[in-house]
């Protein structure tokens, strides 16, 4: 019996360094997160004490160069995302918010002083960042944001509301996107600044082991040098979102693999009509279909990773990966649940938790509908949104 990754010899497509990063991420996720994840999901608990350990291990902003970051390759980063999401989507989300969003925004668009001030601390896990773009009325249409930043003497005054902001209540620094007279700009707002309030959203039935917040900016005053000097227009924010989408393409295949492995194991141990259910044709068909979609998703992720390493990755190609891999991960989780039968809805298995989390992943960083329209525009040259 071959494991999902062994059957197609995916390791042969990776370098020694990439396998090393993957193995270290797998060991960390399985030893430090998995033993507590069901309890944390149930109790809506984020283990902040692990942040420093993640930094010490090099996983925070690992794809960035300098300022304490590991400088790992794109595929190495993708494999780390996969291993963390194989345990829980919330922890891959943490890597994305900290590294792909907040740290990338500072690295790409910040001043040298801003980079020196924040990036080493964030890479070490000594400081946590968040990325405040989404608003309740402008999720898929960030150009419709209502948050404003107004010049006032020697500073800026930010006013507005943000929603679904990961890590905001535990963050030290927030990258806040707001409308100015010169268009959308990014600002670094220390979360202890008067007028900044982050309130965790506690009614979630998904992503319960991570934190997402409502953020209020009530006349929040920041100095003139709080603006990210090179971030002008929404294109800057979108470039950060593209880095997060890259991690999602890999990460959801981890959740899919975990569900597939649970289904395979259960098919060998659960008996019905006098034999293991894995010996029946219908179950084998489900397992084969799940495996094929998992392998296709992995090969797509790897292709996108190699494009990124060559600096040849286009946003439309990210939409292909995000749309396909999230959709197939949800399908694989659903099929796995059916093989586990009634027990599949219990916390004895990770499948139902992955199913719930993947519904969030399906929504953030571009919904299915938005990525479908991005691809439709690419194919026809006509924008339908």
Summarize the structure.
This protein is an alpha+beta fold and 385 residues long.
What do you see in this structure?
- The protein is globular.
- 52% of the residues lie in helices and 17% in strands.
- The chain is built from 12 helices and 10 strands.
- The strands form 3 sheets. It has a 4-stranded mixed β-sheet.
Give short descriptive properties of this protein:
385 residues, alpha+beta, 3 domains, four-stranded antiparallel sheet, 10 strands, Butyryl-Coa Dehydrogenase, subunit A, domain 1, Butyryl-CoA Dehydrogenase, subunit A, domain 2, single chain, globular, four-stranded mixed sheet, Butyryl-CoA Dehydrogenase, subunit A, domain 3
- Helix-and-strand structural type: alpha+beta
CATH architecture heading of the largest domain: Up-down Bundle
Rg result: 21 Å
How do the helices and strands follow one another from N- to C-terminus? HHHHHHHEEEEEEEEHEEHHHH
Number of strands: 10
CATH class of the largest domain: Mainly Alpha
How many structural domains? Answer: 3
pLDDT averaged residue by residue: 96
Strand content: 15-25%
- Unreliable stretches (pLDDT < 50, length at least 5) are none
């Amino acid at each position: 019996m071959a494991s999902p990754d062994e059957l197609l010899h995916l390791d042969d497509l990776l370098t020694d360094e990439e396998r090393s990063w993957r193995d270290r991420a797998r060991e960390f996720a399985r030893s430090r997160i998995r033993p507590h994840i069901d309890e944390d999901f149930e109790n809506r608990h984020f283990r902040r004490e692990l942040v420093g350990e993640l930094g010490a291990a090099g996983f925070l902003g690992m794809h960035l160069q300098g300022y304490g970051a590991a400088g790992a390759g794109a595929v190495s980063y993708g494999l780390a995302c996969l291993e963390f999401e194989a345990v829980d989507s919330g922890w891959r989300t943490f890597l994305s918010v900290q590294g792909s969003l907040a740290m990338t925004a500072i690295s790409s668009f910040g001043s040298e002083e801003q980079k020196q001030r924040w990036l080493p601390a964030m890479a070490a896990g000594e400081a946590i960042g968040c990325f405040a773009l989404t608003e309740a009325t402008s999720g898929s249409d960030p150009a419709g944001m209502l948050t404003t930043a107004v010049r006032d003497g020697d500073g800026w005054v930010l006013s507005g509301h943000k929603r679904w902001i990961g890590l905001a209540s535990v963050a030290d620094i927030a990258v806040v996107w707001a409308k100015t007279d010169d268009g959308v700009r990014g600002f670094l707002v220390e979360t202890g600044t008067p007028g900044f309030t982050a309130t965790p959203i506690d009614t979630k039935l998904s992503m319960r082991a991570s934190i997402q917040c409502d953020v209020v900016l009530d006349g929040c005053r920041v100095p003139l040098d709080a603006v990210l000097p090179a971030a002008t227009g929404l294109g800057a924010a979108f470039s950060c979102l593209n880095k997060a989408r890259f991690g999602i393409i890999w990460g959801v295949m981890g959740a899919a693999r975990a569900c597939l492995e649970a289904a395979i194991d259960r098919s060998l141990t659960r008996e019905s009509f006098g034999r293991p259910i894995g010996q029946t044709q219908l179950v084998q068909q489900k397992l084969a279909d799940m495996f094929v979609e998992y392998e296709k998703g992995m090969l797509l992720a790897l292709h996108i990773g190699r494009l990124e390493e060559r600096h040849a990755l286009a946003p439309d190609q990210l939409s292909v990966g995000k749309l396909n891999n999230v959709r197939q991960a949800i399908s694989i989780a659903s099929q796995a649940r059916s093989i586990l039968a009634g027990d599949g809805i219990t916390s004895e298995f990770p499948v139902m938790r992955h199913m719930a989390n993947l519904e969030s992943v399906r929504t953030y960083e571009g919904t299915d509908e938005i990525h479908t329209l991005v691809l439709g525009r690419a194919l026809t040259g006509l924008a339908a949104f």
